[in-house]
Amino acid sequence: MSATSLSGQLGITALIMNAGPVVKLVLLILFLLSVVCWGIIILKLKTVRRARRDSENFLNIFWETKR
Question: Which domain holds residue 24?
Fold first, then answer.
């Protein structure tokens, strides 16, 4: 495509639609890896919250026990 035919179509969707197969493949891979990373972040946040809650419960029980 020439520069004159794309002059009015510089939106992100137009750029993706007019991109070559290699560019589309790279964008797809980046998108999928981004989703995987967000999933890992969410799982780690849940794990940290659970560990904090368990630690707080342990400390409460520990300090409430009598010798």
Answer: 12-64
